[in-house]
Design a protein that fits this description.
The structure holds 2 protein chains of 2 kinds.
Chain A lengths: L2 E3 L3 E9 L10 H4 L3 E9 L3 E3 L3 E5 L5 E9 L12 H4 L1 H10 L5
Antiparallel strand pairs in A: 1-4, 2-3, 2-6, 3-5, 5-6
Chain B lengths: L5 H6 L1 H9 L15 H6 L5 H10 L7 E3 L1 H10 L7 E5 L10 H14 L4 E5 L3 H12 L3 E9 L7 H12 L3 E6 L4 H12 L2 E2 L5 H22 L5 E5 L4 H12 L6 E7 L22 H9 L19 E5 L1 H15 L9 H9 L8 E4 L11 H10 L3 E5 L9 E5 L8 E3 L1 H15 L6 H11 L3 H11 L1
Parallel strand pairs in B: 2-10, 3-4, 3-6, 4-5, 7-8, 7-10, 8-9, 11-12
Antiparallel strand pairs in B: 1-2, 9-13
Helix pairs in contact in B: 4-10, 6-7, 6-10, 7-8, 10-11, 13-14, 16-18, 17-18
Classes of the chains: A alpha+beta, B alpha/beta.
Chain lengths: 103, 467
C-alpha cells in the first residue's frame, strides 16, 4: 500500500450520486452504477495511505475531500500499437498517384 | 443548508446559470418559445473587429490556410475528367491549445475577466477544456474543467485521458467523472460553490469567437484566388463550429459559399450508456451530438443556445469512423501533416465531395486539431480492439458503430452519406410540439421560419407533415 506525504500529487475518488440517486433519463445499465468522481491535487494531511479519506488542494486552489486512490498517478495513455490495416495506406496511396492514366 | 440533491440542483439551474454567464436571457424572450436571436448575438457587445483584437491579445487565430496539392491530385485521379476541386485546409491546430476551440474560449475568458469573475468553469471532455484552460492561464485566471472520462470499470478512452492531461498541463483543476448526463449536476454544483464564470460552448461569446474562423477562410481565399470558396466543410457536433463559421462567412460577404456540416456516423450508440461509452472511437464530431443538437439546440448548458445549426446548414453529410482514420493517414502520408483524427472528420467527406466539383472550384476544410499520445489513430484503434471492436480493411458501408471499424480498401471506397435536411427540420418541429403544442401564432411561425431557414409557408407545410 502506497503512502502519501503532505504536498504529494495524489488522486482522490468520491461517489457523487449513488445508483438510487441517478437521473430519470439515464439508460438502465448506467442507473445501476454510481456517478463517480476522480480528481488530482496536493495532499494537505501530513501522511495518508491509499484508501483513507483525505483532503487535497487542487490547482484551482480548492480543498476537496475524498478517498485517496493513487499517489503521483502516471499517465497511462500512449500511441498504442501500430495498426497493420493503416500501415499500408501510405505506400498504397503513393503508388496509386504514380500510376499512369492521371486525368 | 441548501438542498444539493439532483432534483434541487436542477430546480435552481436557471438561477445558477444566470449568475454564471451574466446574461439575462429573459430579455430576449418573446412569448413561450420565440426569442430575438440576433439581438442576443449583438448583446455580446463585441464586433468582429473587436473579437479579432481580443484573440490577438492571446495569440488566437490567423492560422495558416494550406492548399492540399497531393490530396487534390488524388481526388482528380479518382474523379471524372474535368472534375476534382482544389482542397484547402485551415490548420487550426496552430492555435495555442491545438484546436479551433481556442477561438471560442478566448472570448469567454475575456468576458469573464472583464466582468470580474474569479475564474472559469467548463463542462467538456473535448478540446474545449484545454482551450479554456490555456486562455485562462494567459489571462491569469483560475480554471476548472468537468470531464466525462470513465465507464464504471474506471476505463477511459485514450483521447479523453489525453485531453485531461492537457488541461492539467495548463494548470487547471480537472474533475473527471464516470458516464452520465449528470455531469451537468456536478457542473452546476461547481458553479454555485465557486461563483466562477460558465465558459459554456453555447453562449453568444463562444459562438462569436468562431466567426473569425469563417471570416479568415473567406477573406484569405478571396485575396489569394480572387473569389470566395464554393464550399466550406465543417465538422459538426454541438453546432457552434458550424454556426460561428457560417456567420463569419456571411460577415465576409461570402453569401454563395455552401455551408456543409460533417459528422462521424455513430448511429445506434447511446451517448449516456455506460456500456456504449467506450465502444465508440470518436468522442466528438459525431451524430450522437450532431443530430440532437441540430434538431433541438436548447438542450445545452445555457437557457438559449447561440449555436443554431438549421439556420445555417446547407447540407449535412456523415462519414464512417474507418474513413476518418483513412483520411487522417492520407493527410499524414501525402501532405506531411500529422493531425488528430476527430479534426479530420470533414476532410474524409471532402475527399469524396471534391470529386463531384469542377476543377476550378475550391473546397475548404476549416479545421485540424493537434495530435499526440491518445489522440492518434494507433492509440484509438488499439483501444477499440481491446474493447472487442473488429478493425479490418473492407467496404466502409459495412461498418457497424460499436462492432466494427472498416478501413477503406483504397481511395475509391471513400464516400459520404447525405442526411435529409427536411427530416431534420421535421424532427425539430416534433421536439417543439412536445414542449409547446400547436396552434402557433404568426410571430411564432416567423420565428420558426428563421430557425429552420425556410419560408413561413414552408413552415406551415412542414407542420402539417408532423401532425
Amino acid at each position: 500500500m502506497k503512502i502519501a506525504r503532505q504536498g504529494d500529487w495524489v488522486q482522490i475518488h468520491r461517489v457523487i450520486l449513488s445508483p438510487g440517486e441517478r437521473a430519470e433519463q439515464v439508460p438502465e445499465e448506467t442507473k445501476k452504477v454510481p456517478l463517480e468522481l476522480r480528481v488530482k491535487g496536493w495532499l494537505l494531511l501530513d501522511k495518508a495511505s491509499e484508501g483513507e479519506e483525505v483532503v487535497i488542494k487542487t490547482p484551482a486552489g480548492r480543498e476537496l475531500e475524498g478517498k485517496l486512490i493513487a499517489v503521483n498517478p502516471p499517465f497511462m495513455h500512449g500511441f498504442g500499437s501500430p495498426i497493420p490495416e493503416l500501415l499500408e495506406v501510405g505506400s498504397e496511396l503513393r503508388a496509386y498517384l504514380e500510376e499512369e492514366g492521371s486525368r | 443548508m441548501k438542498d444539493m440533491s439532483y432534483a434541487a440542483m436542477m430546480d435552481r439551474r436557471n438561477e445558477i446559470l444566470k449568475k454564471a454567464v451574466g446574461i439575462d436571457y429573459e430579455q430576449f424572450a418573446r412569448g413561450r418559445f420565440v426569442f430575438d436571436y440576433e439581438a442576443m448575438m449583438k448583446k455580446v457587445g463585441y464586433t468582429l473587429e473587436e473579437i479579432r483584437e481580443i484573440q490577438k491579445e492571446t495569440d488566437v487565430g490567423e492560422t495558416p490556410l494550406w492548399e492540399m496539392k497531393n490530396l487534390t491530385r488524388l481526388v482528380r485521379k479518382l474523379a471524372s475528367p474535368g472534375k476534382g476541386a482544389r482542397i484547402f485546409v485551415k490548420d487550426e491546430a496552430a492555435n495555442p491549445s491545438g484546436s479551433f476551440k481556442a477561438r471560442r474560449a478566448s472570448v469567454s475568458v475575456y468576458r469573464a475577466q472583464q466582468q470580474g469573475y474569479p475564474g472559469v468553469v467548463s463542462a467538456t471532455s473535448g478540446n474545449y477544456g484545454a482551450a479554456v484552460a490555456s486562455q485562462a492561464t494567459k489571462r491569469n485566471m483560475k480554471c476548472i474543467v468537468v470531464q466525462e472520462v470513465f465507464d464504471s470499470k474506471g476505463d477511459g478512452q485514450p483521447e479523453i485521458l489525453e485531453k485531461g492531461r492537457k488541461c492539467e498541463a495548463y494548470g487547471a483543476e480537472v474533475l473527471q467523472l464516470s458516464v452520465g448526463p449528470e455531469l451537468f449536476y456536478t457542473f452546476l454544483r461547481v458553479l454555485e460553490e465557486t461563483g466562477f464564470f460558465n465558459a459554456s460552448l453555447y453562449t453568444p461569446f463562444g459562438i462569436a469567437g468562431v466567426e473569425t474562423l469563417g471570416y479568415e477562410v473567406a477573406t484569405e481565399i478571396k485575396e489569394r484566388e480572387g473569389k470566395h470558396p464554393e464550399k466550406v466543410l465543417i465538422t459538426h457536433a454541438g453546432g457552434g463550429n458550424l454556426t460561428g463559421t457560417a456567420r463569419g462567412l456571411e460577415k465576409a460577404g461570402a453569401k454563395d459559399t455552401e455551408v456543409v456540416g460533417v459528422s462521424v456516423d455513430l448511429t445506434g450508440l447511446h451517448s449516456a450508456s455506460d456500456h456504449d461509452f467506450n465502444r465508440k472511437s470518436f468522442t466528438t464530431g459525431h451524430t450522437g451530438f450532431g443530430v440532437p443538437f441540430t434538431t433541438w439546440p436548447d438542450r445545452a448548458d445555457v437557457p438559449r443556445n447561440a449555436a443554431r445549426s438549421l439556420r445555417y446548414l446547407d447540407r449535412y453529410l456523415t462519414v464512417t469512423q474507418g474513413q476518418v482514420f483513412y483520411a487522417t493517414e492520407a493527410l499524414a502520408q501525402l501532405e506531411g501533416l500529422e493531425r488528430g483524427p476527430a479534426g479530420n472528420t470533414s476532410l474524409a467527406a471532402a475527399l469524396a465531395l471534391a470529386q463531384e466539383m469542377d476543377q476550378d472550384e475550391i473546397l475548404v476544410v476549416q479545421e485540424t486539431e493537434y495530435t499526440g499520445a491518445g489522440k492518434h489513430p494507433t492509440a484509438q484503434l488499439s483501444f477499440a480492439q481491446e474493447k472487442g471492436i473488429e478493425v479490418r480493411r473492407g467496404d466502409p458501408h459495412e461498418e457497424k458503430p460499436g462492432e466494427s471499424i472498416i478501413i477503406p480498401r483504397g481511395p475509391e471506397d471513400l464516400f459520404y452519406k447525405e442526411m435529409d435536411t427536411e427530416r431534420l427540420r421535421l424532427s425539430y418541429l416534433r421536439s417543439l410540439q412536445k414542449q409547446h403544442p400547436a396552434p402557433y401564432s404568426e410571430e411564432e411561425i416567423e420565428f420558426l421560419a428563421e430557425e429552420l431557414s425556410v419560408s413561413p409557408e414552408r413552415v406551415h407545410e412542414l407542420l402539417e407533415k408532423v401532425e
